[in-house]
Amino acid sequence: MHLFLTYTILGLVTGAVYGIAASGLVLTYTTSGIFNFAQGAMAMLAAFTYWQFRYGWNWPAPLALFTVIVVLAPLLGAVLYLGIMRGLRQTADVTKIVVTIGIMLGLIALAQWIWNPGVPRTDDLFFGNAAKFRVLGVYVTDHEAIALGCGVLIAVGIRLLFTSTRTGVAMRAVVDNPELLQLNGGRPQRLAAFSWALGGALAALAGILITPISGGTLDVHVLTLLVLDSIAAAMFGRLRSIWRTFGGALVLGLAGTYVLGYFPSSWSWASDFRIALPMIVLFVVLLVLPQDRLRGATLLRTRERFTVPTLRSAVTWGVILLLVVLALEQIMGTNDMGALTIGITYAIIALSLTLLTGYAGEINLAPVSFGAIATIIVFHLGLSGTGSAQRITLWGLLLGIVVTALVGGLIALPALRLRGLYLALATLAFGVFVSDMVIADIAPHVLPIFHVHFSIFPNGTLQLPPLKLGPVDLNSTKTFLTTSVCIFVLLGIGLVALRRSSYGRRLTAMKDSPAAAATLGQNLVRLKLSVFMLSAAIAGLGGVLLSAAAGSVNDTTFIIFISLALVMLTVVGGIGSVAGALMGGILAGTAFQALTATFTNLSTDAGGGGFWSVMGNLSLVAPALIGISLGRNPSGAVPQIVANYAPLWRVKAVLALGVVAEVVAYLLVLTKVMGNWWLVFATALIALALPAVGRIVRPEAFGAGPVATPGARERRAIVPTAVSVSAVEGVANARS
Amino acid sequence: MPALEVSDVCMAFGGALVLSDVSLSVPAGAVTGLIGPNGAGKTTLFNVVSGLLEPRSGRVMIEGHEVTKAGPAARARRGLARTYQRLELFTSLTVRENIQVAGEIRNTWGRRGRIDVGAETDRTIALMGLGDVAEREVSELPTARARVVEVARALMTQPRVLLLDEPASGQTEQETADFSQLLRQLVTERDLAICLVEHDVGLVMGTCELIHVLDYGEIIASGPPEQVKSDPAVVNAYLGAP
Q1: How far apart are the CA of B1 and the nearest CA of chain A, in angstroms?
Q2: Most confident residue range from A364-373, A701-710, B33-42
Q3: Which residues in chain A touch residue B145, judged by CB atoms under 8 angstroms apart?
Q4: Closest CA in chain B for residue A294
Q5: What's A452-468 look like in SS3?
Q6: Shortest CA distance from B103: residue in chain A
Q7: Which of A64, A601, B64, B214 is 20 to 30 Å apart from B115, CA to CA?
């Protein structure tokens, strides 16, 4: 009984903190329509800032708390809304999700920059460990009592805000119809900014409260994930009801401590299970959510625009890519080739997103976790030979792909009835589950029935041999790179062909208007399931290639943040095109690592390290900054680049000149007249110069007057349509 | 047996009853009008009939088959098609592709009654007079033409019952006259049942053989145009009490 009471109180306290964080999520979602994936990272940043004030600079606790919770965190929330989120109206779900993911990754990088992760930091309980009192024979610390009290106060407070105050009622109106609210004298922007400020304060409070309870150690990733768990609680309330959100939070907190308390200690997976529990609960809650009403396109049109290349141009560009890589292989060192290979394998995983998100409009936040599943299958069942002659067999690879497709189907099945965001959350839950339970299964345990010793991820590191695809043995880095590029090109051409097929058009129809597709007789569940399985299969293939290219993989290879970064960078590149996937993969797998490594080397070698180390850290924050800027150009970088260079086709002489210059530079490098870096500089120079020269030679090809950026052109094209449609409809409605 | 039969349908949003005991029938081979003031529940009735909304009570029958519990896709396979007052075109596709993909969806239903999508697309584009814009993006079209694309798309599934939600709004007088002609041609040539929601009284009176009048969620009159026009309840609903 005594033990039960102890666990119950601990569970209630954890639940209260989950509730505080989750209510912040509900608040921002109901008023701005944006689900804030950065909530956990905001909590983490607040906990670190509090630590800095309280323990770094020895401020008194009340002052530190006030500064963080009442001043800085609300400021961050409001700035995020006014500076970034406000620009996301009329964008697709995926853009909104990716931007908050960008903020999350940015805050994580920022925290690691300011607070060197190598230095241990701990937070104490409020009033110290000794401050406690007895309730029913059980000790309760003051800190726990404060956390519980805050939870109760906030639950009641928000409920009252929503039901009894003018501001709260207006906040609920914002989401239903901001224009109407504005006509009635409300200020939707100000209300949304206010709710983001409040959400920031709640995140900060949750972060500061939970750190000492969960051991006191400040860890960037652990803290972010801890608060991310509160998503499950928010889902209990279906992102609307504050009561049910807090109810769900308490269930979550209690279940966690009871698992800790009452699962037999002989179950080696029990502690992993406790960590994974919120995500399992999230998945189950999504499973029992009632079906959403089928919606049509809620907007007249989203701002994302993707063009579909012809099959011929896809083949041409595929061949060009292959030729470029073959040429580069002649001058690159083995390490560089290895790094590029990793990038290409990421790009193959990113192709799974092109299909799923770009074509079908569904979202998968854990593509790399599907790669992990395929890798594990291949490791256990797909190897042959021993020692240095060991290889991944073709059949093993195929088995891994098939199993991953089936797992993908299983994950998607419950969420198929739901809208984009919920499917995205189901995949997030899956990704964290894979990290927490599957990859964490490192110690051998005895399998029931079979009585053999077995662990899914033996010793925490898997060594993978090279692939052998029939006659092609990929045991040299060069062959591996060439083969990966070939696979990417073939898949890319395949995807373009798919998009131009009847199946591809049906996917597009489902993305553009699920309601219209359904009333034309399209079975949406079957279509979604098939595309999700196909996409998981591609991610599985890319994952095995990634693992084989890396040689050895561990828990950090498949941590959810890698998946999130890849998703974000692929959207940055352009989720609607194969080239966007290539750009996303190379950025995620090669470019930023190379930058960081270069800057780190420079800061140690070149002396005067300060500047270079700042640059190194900047290059860690940079991807997030790019992600955050998506609101301005939601279609991604590739369409913009294409629009910039397309007019050159009409100035063939300049184009030819550029190609010749590039070839000459390459030949100079090949003959060792110049070093590799010169080729990089020359290429950048030529790339910059070509459009400029083209504009001088043939201004009319580039359009007269100032250069029309594709973004500007899009907006011009869209606004009149949108206006004309709504205007006509307005007239029609007024007339009747 | 009417092609579409709605009996005693009730529908409420929260506490507000938007359809109360609505019963109406739409026969094959004729254009049936559904008129009523704004907010009468016409679009809601279409959503209930096409399976996007589940009614609180009542029955929906398509060609004698009960479909009240069926999803939208299953109803489409029974021969139902519709257009939307708020356009629901596939904005990433061209006009031709919008029409083509409907035929391709039609061909996923099974072997029976498969169509030659290419030929049928060409035929429908010609029939609806969309030849000049076939390769354009649908989002570039003016609303009136975009509504015609919706009609063309719906026709591709070879429906038995076609629900048209304000298909002619935004059209010029001449276009409306041609459109009326086209609807008459469709119902006689294909023995199709069309249910037409439209605010253009001239179009409705000139095209429909049977008219249902919906007001505040209730059918207040049903009958041929002449009879409905002079019905006191209808006059009252449109012009207010004298």
Answers
A1: 23
A2: A364-373
A3: none
A4: B52
A5: CEECCCHHHEEECCCEE
A6: A520
A7: B64
Res A355 pLDDT > 60: yes
User: What SS3 class is residue A201?
Assistant: helix
Give A522→chain B minimum CA distance, Å: 6
Most confident range (mean pLDDT) of A64-78, A234-248, A257-271 is A64-78
Query: What is the rounded average pLDDT for all residues in chain B?
Result: 92
Size of interface A-B (CB pairs under 8 A): 119
- Compute the C-alpha angle B194/B198/B202, nearest 5°: 100
pLDDT value of residue A541:
97
**Residue B226 contacts by C-beta under 8 Å, 6 or more apart in sequence?**
none
Question: Would you give the distance in Å from CA B240 to the centre of its chain?
Answer: 28
The two structure tokens encoding residue B242: 């004298």
Neighbours of A663 (CB within 10 A): 11
Q: Going by CATH, does the domain composed of A2-110+122-267 fall within 1.10.3470?
A: yes
Helices (H), A416-523: 420-433, 477-499, 502-512, 514-519
CATH of the domain spanning A333-636: 1.10.3470
How far is the alpha carbon of B33 from chain A, nearest alpha carbon, in Å? 16
Angle between helices A334-353 and A367-381 (to 10 degrees): 110
pTM of the model: 0.89
Condensed to tens digits (0 to 9), the pLDDT of residues A611-658 reads 777 777 777 777 777 777 777 778 888 888 888 888 888 888 888 999
Q: Given pLDDT bands bounded at 50, 70 and 90, which one contains residue A734?
A: very low
Radius of gyration of chain B, Cα coordinates, nearest whole angstrom? 18
- B154·A520 Cβ contact <8 A: yes
Q: How far apart are CA B211 and CA B197, in angstroms?
A: 10
- Residue A391 CA neighbour count, 13 Å, CB half: 15
Does the beta carbon of A512 lie under 8 angstroms from any beta carbon of chain B? yes
The answer to whether the beta carbons of residues A567 and A556 sit under 8 Å apart is no
Answer whether residue A492 shows pLDDT above 80. Answer: yes
Per-residue confidence at A595, pLDDT binned at 50, 70, 90?
confident
Q: Chain B contacts of A730, Cβ < 8 Å?
A: none
- Residue ranges matching CATH 1.10.3470 in chain A: 2-110+122-267, 333-636
- Please identify among residues 515-534 of chain A the ones whose CB lies closer than 8 Å to any CB of chain B: 515-524
- How far, in Å, CA of A26 to CA of A12, rounded? 20
* A508 contacts on B by Cβ (under 8 Å): 90, 92-93, 101
Segment A88-125, tens digit of pLDDT: 877 888 888 889 998 998 899 899 889 988 888 888 88
Q: Of B15-19, B98-102, B103-107, which range is least confident? A: B15-19
Q: Which residue, chain included where needed, has tokens 């009561």?
A: A243
Rounded alpha-carbon distances, angstroms, from residue A106 to A37, A67, A157, A205, A567: 12, 22, 31, 20, 14
Domains in chain B with CATH codes = 1-79+159-242 (3.40.50.300), 89-157 (no CATH)
